[in-house]
Amino acid sequence: MTRDVITLDYIAHEEILRLTAVAGRIFSHPALKITLLRLGAVIEGDICTIKVTQDKLGSINRQLSESIKKAGFELGQSSDMSDELRKVFDKELAFQIFSNKAVSLWSGKTIPEELNEFESVIAKKINRKLSNLQFLSAMHLAFSQNACNFSVPGAGKTTIVYSAFAFLNHLPINDLKHIDRILVIGPLASFYAWKREFKECFGREPKYVRLFSGMSVREVDNVLLGLSPDCEELELIHVSFQTAVNLEDKLRCFLNSPTKKTMLVVDEAHNIKRENGIWSSACLRLSSNASSRVVLTGTPAPNGYEDLFNLFQFLYPDRNLIGFPRANLVAMSEGVMSSESLRKRIQPFFTRITKQHLGLPPIQEFLQTLNMSSAELKIYRNLEDLIFKSASFGSSQKVTPIQRAGLIRLRQAASNPKMLLKPLEDFFEEDVALSDQQILITDEIMSLVDKFDPLVDSSKLGELIRICRQKIEQGEKVLIWSYFISTIDLIEFALSKKLSKKVLRITGKTPSEGNPDSYDESLITREKIITEFIDNPDSMILIANPQALGESVSLHYSCHTAIYFDRDFNCGKFIQSKDRIHRYGLKDVTTNYYYLTYDVTVDWDINDRLTLKERRMNSLLERDEIPLFKTIENESSEFEDIRQVLRSYAKRKLL
After folding, report:
1. Strand 5-11 to 16-21 pairing
2. pLDDT at 323
3. Is 5-90 assigned to CATH 3.30.70?
4. Which of 250, 360, 583, 607 could form an S-S bond across to 224 if both were Cys, CB 3.0 to 4.6 Å?
5. What are phi and psi of 564, to 5 degrees?
6. For the segment 100-135, what is each residue's pLDDT rounded down to a tens digit?
7. Which residues are bridge partners to 44 per DSSP?
8. CATH classification code of 363-368+454-654
9. What is the edge-to-edge ordering of all strands in the sheet holding 16-21?
10. Is 0.90 surpassed by the pTM of this model?
11. Nearest to 99, CA basis, from 348, 323, 352
């Protein structure tokens, strides 16, 4: 043996892990010594001992192995190694082989033994034809059982999970990989899509239940504690993040069932990124009880690589797949530290499909540039002068509450000037930093707004009615987006009056099924509205704001036209809203987007900035590696948004 070798052995009856340095003062190496002392090691010359119970032996061995290799030493095996430690080494070797095979499988370099069987099962059980990458992703998940899917929104992540489940469920009950059912933890908005996609994939309704806080204790116990025979055959169970917290102990019993093996899925898993968060902590604790673990999100690292920590901890609770503390991950996000080793470590455990791989039909985008009516223009120009002539608006070198308030006021004036009659606090109660402060609406502006009649004076509203009438006459449904509740109220009233059509709406105030206050069957919930819009041929118009409907909702089978009455500078929300109607499954249909934009206003500045941001964000999204959006949506970006508006105003004043 060479002088830089450390051998390990385990004395089972004493629960002692012994490290022996073959030569030299190896244990004095600074980094290695820190790891040893952190593990409670006792160092005596060339012998080091650590007190370790057998159930922790694998975890300790992995930490030591990494630290020894990083220090530049070799880990050796003694000829008389104990059976307990040999099993640990064999298990680690098997996991390494498995990891390498997972990478080769996703890259298409390896053909697994189960390929023919997998193809046969998918052909028989799944009604949809998977793309090549969807097929590989589903096979990767079925092979590994624990995996992340970071595909872009609309790439068919739910279908991929159901395909893997179909294969694992068909395996004999005594097969270690057999799975009986799926438990999904996710946002309330995602539940409808899971249920609908099940029917699309399997050609039948699922044996399904949704658990929520309004259910009685007995109803919950029937499902989670197996008190009702009817619940034994459940295939799909849904809980929201908060409900998972409330029912954690009973969910653990459910996952630990001796007769049923469960695949635990966290949908929109960026919601569990927070360190020591209530939702994330509950999901991490539950993960160790599942037979299979799946993480789904199209935005795994919205703030940086540190957001990945919990996601990979969820996959393998007893392993440190990431291999770096959060501080190092932050350094990688900021470019201070290379992320190459991180990417190599996590490569076996995730798949990612971009939109360019989906072969989606084309989109058409129409920038509907409009002139304000004379009434609107007077209001807007007066407000604009008031805001930009404020001494404090353009003086700061960082974003201030006054600047944010000013931009919101301009957006309101370009959407529905009647909002100027109310203080900003009425629109953004949750954000105390947003107030009118020094931007006090003058009596002159108030008088102009009082006289303003949106049904007569709003050019946008007139154009919206024209497009909607045209689309409805062609038998097409229309999705309308606005960021303001007051504008949604106005649009709903105007379209109902002018087109004599029922208009559906979803905002943050629309209750969801499964909320503790919304289990009354008589309530009109988001799910019922979405179902009606999709399935009812007479329901042609849906109005929504991106905050309420920008995630986990699929409308692409029934709606191919979206009209943006107004927009803001947030590119992430904008792209998410577009993805509601442009997703996997579309065939031979063109998706149309209309952007109602007032010329020479904040609308035009928003369009310019969104065009730039979307190009950058799509460039990131189309990469195979995990995208970091922090560089696109941050305070620097927000400050540049404000500078764009200021430049436009100054340029116009010089003309």
Report:
1. antiparallel
2. 87
3. yes
4. 250
5. -100, 105
6. 888 888 877 777 777 889 999 999 999 988 988 999
7. 47
8. 3.40.50.300
9. 42-44, 47-51, 16-21, 5-11, 74-77
10. no
11. 348
